[in-house]
Task: inverse folding
């Protein structure tokens, strides 16, 4: 197969460099030369891009781990080295990059069928790429023989890869359902405690720590028996990963909650929490989400923010999903629960009480201030006439006994607290404060 010597990277294509580790690249360059190695790197990147595009257009699951390019590249280099040496298929072993992709697939719940579908799709395009080289480099009188030899070798090699990868998948699956759940919990606990993860952290977790992350906490609305609880949580995590475009996810029973961790190969949109809110879930599941973050620091901050949102969610009866953007300020106020209760009583004196008219006035004033004092925006949000908004805002000013532009930030913070925790508007202010404090202390423990 002298045509292997003609392999060189396209002059008009500047890639991102190898996806394999330097040891594999150095070994390939020593065996087949730097130009052929560079050709394999560029070709593998293009093949993975094309296969990913094909899967997307067909609506077929694929490219789930984020390491498919590394697996394809390592396999192509191994194939070229085998062709160059004339290695028999029985002596060909699936390279480390492909095996690592399989291990990650197990940990991220990717079925073996999806893994093999990706392997065969990449193999088909590798075959096309090499046949195109033969068509250009091999004389017509030798073309048929070279094509037959190549096809036979490639088919035998990919069969060897598939056998190895299936065995690797089965071995990893057995291991994964054994001791690894405890190992994963150990690693994530260390990370969230601020410790540096060990060298084997990514192998154990099956997720890339240097990429992008989103953390949410979930808990049941009831302490009673919940049928199919684990299945419901797993279904929510899986559906969310698909809806958000996550590369994978993990769940942990962590400090009395279920911790959901979604990992992304590319930076997710900051509004990803809104997408998470829209994911269907069992009615008993309450969720508090942080914001997406990058790297270890981003993972930790997303968890911290989810904790803050959960603090608000556990005390508020109004909704079953909170994210940090809407709960962050309230969580700060809750750091001093009795002080927060007193703050509401002072700031909203004149607007307190359970009367529905007062509730409507408070809610209208809250939307008015959130809309930057726009009557039109508040009216649209509340589905009211602008005159109704104007009347209620005027009435709020009268009851508060101060201009609406006086201490707007404090007024809005108090209105948000009163909206989220209605019991703080009770006329029995001292009781409300004591009850709120006791409830907060109970939830904190």
Result:
């Amino acid at each position: 197969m002298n045509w292997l010597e003609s392999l060189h990277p396209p002059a008009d294509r500047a890639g991102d460099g190898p996806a394999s580790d330097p040891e594999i690249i150095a070994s390939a360059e020593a065996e087949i030369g730097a130009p052929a190695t560079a050709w394999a790197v560029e070709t593998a990147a293009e093949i993975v891009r094309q296969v990913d595009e094909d899967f997307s257009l067909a609506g077929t699951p694929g490219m789930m781990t984020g390491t498919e390019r590394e697996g394809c590249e390592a396999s192509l280099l191994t194939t070229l080295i085998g062709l160059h040496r004339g290695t028999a298929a029985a002596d060909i072993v699936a390279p480390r990059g492909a095996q690592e992709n399989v291990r990650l697939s197990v940990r991220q719940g990717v079925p073996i069928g999806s893994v093999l579908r990706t392997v065969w799709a990449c193999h088909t395009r590798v075959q096309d790429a090499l046949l195109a080289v033969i068509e250009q480099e091999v004389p017509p009188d030798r073309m048929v023989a070279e094509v037959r030899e190549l096809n036979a070798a490639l088919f035998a090699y990919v069969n060897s890869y598939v056998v190895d990868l299936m065995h690797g998948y089965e071995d990893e699956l057995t291991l994964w359902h054994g001791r690894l759940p405890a190992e994963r919990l150990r690693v994530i606990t260390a990370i969230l405690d601020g410790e540096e993860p060990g060298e084997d952290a990514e192998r154990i977790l099956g997720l890339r720590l240097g990429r992008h992350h989103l953390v949410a906490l979930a808990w049941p609305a009831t302490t009673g028996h919940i049928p199919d609880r684990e299945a419901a949580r797993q279904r929510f995590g899986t559906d969310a990963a698909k809806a958000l475009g996550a590369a994978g996810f993990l769940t942990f029973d962590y400090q009395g909650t279920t911790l959901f961790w979604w990992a992304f190969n590319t930076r997710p949109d900051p509004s990803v929490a809104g997408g998470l809110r829209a994911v269907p879930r069992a009615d008993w599941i309450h969720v508090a989400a942080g914001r997406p973050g990058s790297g270890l620091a981003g993972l930790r901050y997303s968890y911290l923010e989810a904790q803050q949102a959960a603090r608000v969610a556990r005390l508020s009866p109004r909704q079953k999903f909170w994210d940090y953007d809407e709960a962050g300020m309230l969580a700060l106020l809750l750091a001093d629960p009795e002080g927060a209760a007193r703050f509401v009583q002072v700031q909203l004196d004149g607007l307190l009480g359970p009367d529905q008219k007062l509730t409507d006035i408070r809610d209208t004033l809250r939307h008015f201030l959130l809309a930057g004092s726009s009557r039109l925006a508040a009216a649209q949000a509340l589905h009211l006439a602008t005159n109704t908004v104007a009347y209620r805002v005027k009435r709020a000013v009268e009851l508060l006994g101060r201009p609406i532009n006086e201490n707007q930030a404090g007024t809005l913070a108090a209105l948000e607290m009163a909206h989220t925790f209605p019991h703080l508007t009770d006329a029995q202010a001292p009781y409300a404060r004591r009850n709120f404090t006791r409830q907060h202390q109970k939830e904190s423990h």
